[in-house]
Amino acid sequence: MLKKIRSFTQDGDVQIIEQKTAYKGYFQINQLKLKFKKFCGAWSKPVSRELFQRKNTVGALLFDPKIEKLVFIEQFRVGALNDQLSPWLIEIVAGIVESGETEEEVAKREVYEETGLAVSKLKKICGYWSSPGASDEYLTIFFAEVNTSGIETISGLADEEEDIKAHLVSIEEAKDWLASGLLNNAAILIAFQWFLLHYQKA
Fold first, then answer.
1. DSSP state of 175
2. Which of 31, 95, 125, 180 is 20 to 30 A from 21 (CA-CA)?
3. Percent of the chain with pLDDT over 70
4. Which tens digits make up the pLDDT trace of 174-194?
5. Domain residue spans in the chain?
6. By the 8 A CB rule, do 39 and 7 touch?
7. What's the gap between Cα 40 and its chain centre?
């Protein structure tokens, strides 16, 4: 059993003094003034922080056990405009959790929307805060088994101008992509390295 590591809780050790919305569109940015309990026991001085707010997301690493291949997707990402190679990133399937949806429902929906495939088995890998210094996004990652015989190479929601390319990749090829730095976002790095630690050939 893990020993208690964290020293503080949210309720008693953080005080929000002021909060206002700086921007509200598809996402939202809030400006907060707050203080928090320090490790010495004293309170910090009031500090200002900007918080990028977005809904939680779900990702899924797809694997076809019959042919022992993974499915990665590729799409344009505005946040990667300064990438030295390309703002088209290799990723795992992912999407936003809408109101009333479970994480498992989101995983299955996104797999179908982005690859045309149905999930036969789903296992939770982990959850993590994607960038807690400035964002409240929490991402949950699943491992999903699929039959890739009906894969759609190019897909995405037309009304959202999604343009997504699916890559069917062998395990060895994926290792090469990892070593070369082609896999360069947190979700795919976490998911694929989990796979390498846990996968056992049938």
1. H
2. 95
3. 96
4. 999 999 999 999 999 999 999
5. 10-53, 57-198
6. yes
7. 34
3-class DSSP state of 80 = helix
Cβ-proximal residues to 148 (8 Å cutoff; 6+ apart), any chain = 62, 64, 67, 69, 71, 117, 168
Q: pLDDT tens digit string along 70-83? A: 999 999 999 999 99
State the average pLDDT for the chain. Answer: 94
Greatest Cα pair distance, the chain, in angstroms, is 61
- For the chain, the residue count is 202
Catalytic position from the list 160, 161, 172, 173: 160
pLDDT above 90 (res 161) = no
Mean per-residue pLDDT, 148-154:
91
Q: How far is CA 64 from CA 48, 73, 117, 118, 201, in A?
A: 48, 15, 11, 11, 12
What kind of architecture, by CATH, is found in domain 57-198?
Alpha-Beta Complex (3.90)
- Give SS3 for 89: strand
